[in-house]
Amino acid sequence: MNEALSAITINIGKSGVNENVIDEVKRQLKSNEVVKLKFARSIAKNKDDFISDIVSATNAELVDVRGHVAIIYKKKS
User: 8-39 burial, b if ≥16 CB within 10 A, otherwise e?
Assistant: First the structure.
């Protein structure tokens, strides 16, 4: 997937996922169909829960998870 190589990356730090993170992911999905979510090592054990929260809040699809990075996709409307 060539789009994933140019996808915008959002770093998610030790404070985890909050409303600001969700809003930023929504903004990025509007302009870019593919967004990478990079989780800090300190919260990586909870990344599955965070990914579920983000995917459901943004109506995006989870494409791939590798290490501490998740790739989500939402078709532009």
Answer: eebebeeebbeeebeeebbebbeebebbbbeb
